[in-house]
Amino acid sequence: MAPARVSQTELDARKIVGVNAETVTNVSSTDIPGHYPGEDHEWDLEEFRNTFQVKFHKHQPFDCSFSLIGIDASIANAFRRILIAEIPTLAIEYVFVHNNTSIVQDEVLSHRLGLIPLTGNPAGLRWLQQYRKPTDEDPVGSGVQDVNTVVMKLKVECTKADNYDELNRKREDDPRLLYKHAHVYAKDLEFVVSGRQDTFFSGEANQIKPVHPDILLAKMRPGQCIDMEMHCVKGIGADHAKFSPVATASYRLLPTISITKPILGNEAKKFARCFPKGVIGLEEVSRGEAKQKGSEYEGHEGEKKAVVKNTFKDTVSRECLRHPEFEGKVKLGRVRDHFIFMVESTGQYQSDELFLESVSILKEKCASMKRGLAEYTR
Fold first, then answer.
1. From residue 300, how far is each of 260, 327, 328, 348 by CA, in Å?
2. In angstroms, how far is the first alpha carbon of the chain from the final one?
3. What is the pLDDT of residue 287?
């Protein structure tokens, strides 16, 4: 039996999730995504290459936005989950407290230290291996080595400023001027080179350091001090949130707006106000449109009409569906296979590198599954 032929209109309709005033329609996918009974959906790598697209919209060191077009939601969600929980990063795991006379308790300060995002030479961070903790089955673990552990120290003591008496006479009340180390910041952490780490982390630009040096850790007064040693190891967000390389990684479907009947004059201005700025524009009805029979623009030459400019900026608030004058004139929806990602890096990776890392991890997972299937079918 020959495969059924499907019209382009039907193919386009399959890609749209309908957004109505109170409901969302066409949300269910088929049992096998992208496959429909009686039709030929044989996998074709060349066709996938021609239809799949990656488009970058914003590219900044800590923040990027890009679109993945032509894939199923399961793949897009796999990338999102990998970004959040499976890309390994470096963070403080063990804190050895030699002395802490500040008012911040040891465990609270240790927790704050663990959440500080760290950065360093990318090649060195990739060279580091994940530390294997001791268990009942493996009491030794991987052991502390230069290849799996980074050592940092925090040793600060609060003392009076050299010109304390002069400032006191002037009734200065800012503790940051009256005392040295009145505030302890992330920049006070000191990286200690161990073994072969000097190959990758030598020099100010390459050494391990906090992404944001002005993170406040504690406040002290004269006579108080903090003396700690910290061991940093690589881990993944699935183990602890401090290892997650992203502050957020999310996606949304591209909105669609179809104006099915002309919206003119004051109604057009009101219609534009129902959307974020830049989504809907106003244009004059041309002479050709006004002369065209059946266009519904007849007799409206020169009047303002509503046109769709940029659906990317739309938030799909459905505000326009609340007004009776727009009933039957507009259809809202989302494109099923167009995923707009927003990725905000915590700083250890550039934001665009994170997606490439997630692709590499997904490839490793697929290769591992193929090896498992091959062994299972022997």
1. 17, 21, 20, 58
2. 35
3. 87
Residue for token digits 């303002």?
Answer: 304
Encoding tokens for residue 136?
């009942």
- Residues β-bridged to residue 68: 54, 339
Bridge-based pairing state of the strands 16-19 and 330-345? antiparallel
Per-residue pLDDT reduced to its tens digit, 327-336: 999 999 999 9
Alpha-carbon dihedral angle through residues 254, 260, 262, 268, given to the nearest 10 degrees: -30
Round to whole Å and give the CA distance between 20 and 238: 37
Confidence (pTM): 0.86
Query: Largest alpha-carbon pair distance within the chain?
Result: 98
- Strands (E) located in the chain: 16-19, 24-25, 53-59, 63-69, 89-100, 118-119, 150-157, 159-160, 179-180, 183-185, 190-192, 209-210, 216-219, 225-235, 246-259, 280-284, 304-308, 330-345
Euclidean distance between CA atoms 137 and 321, whole angstroms: 62
Q: Are 257 and 263 in contact (CB under 8 A)?
A: no
Tokens of 244: 């997650």
On whether the CB atoms of residues 335 and 13 are closer than 8 A, the answer is no
What is residue 31's predicted lDDT score, i.e. its pLDDT?
67
**Cβ–Cβ under 8 Å, residues 109 and 230:** no
Distance CA 317, CA 361 (A): 36
Q: Which structure tokens are listed for 339? A: 């995923």
Dist. CA 359–CA 341, nearest whole Å: 14
9 vs 115, more confident? 115
Question: What is the C-alpha separation between 78 and 362, in angstroms, rounded?
Answer: 8
How many angstroms separate the CA atoms of 140 and 133, rounded?
Answer: 8
Amino acid identity at 177: L
**Distance separating alpha carbons of residues 199 and 332, to the nearest angstrom:** 57
User: Which 8-state DSSP code applies to residue 196?
Assistant: G
